[in-house]
Design brief:
There is one protein chain. This protein is an all-alpha fold. Helices cover 83% and strands 0% of the residues. The chain has three helices and no strands. Helix 1 (4-15) packs across helix 3 and helix 2 (17-39) packs across helix 3. The protein starts with a helix and ends in a 7-residue tail after the last helix.
Length: 93
């Protein structure tokens, strides 16, 4: 049985980074739509969670394909900025 990392590598190899980047954009758009529908009472949290899972899967593929350090760097910056806006200290450890 293949593990998650192997599946991600296989998908990236088969479809290529450009196609997977397009897929990430598609999944992010579907998540945006589902969130809007949920807020308008036209959907539910399970459908929203499903779209969130799709986006996470695509991001994890790009993490494995060399973007993990860059994603983590930007994530830490944004978390520090959020803590600052909330008026709390933040320790990234």
């Amino acid at each position: 049985m293949n593990n998650r990392s192997t599946l991600y590598r296989m998908a990236m190899k088969r479809f290529g980074p450009e196609s997977q980047l397009l897929k990430l954009a598609e999944e992010a758009s579907e998540l945006s739509t589902e969130v809007s529908h949920n807020l308008n009472g036209l959907s539910d949290e399970m459908k929203q969670a499903s779209e969130m899972a799709d986006v996470e899967i695509m991001i994890e593929q790009f993490r494995l394909n060399g973007l993990s350090t860059a994603i983590d760097f930007h994530k830490q910056q944004k978390l520090s900025r959020l803590a600052e806006r909330l008026g709390v200290s933040y320790d990234p450890k």
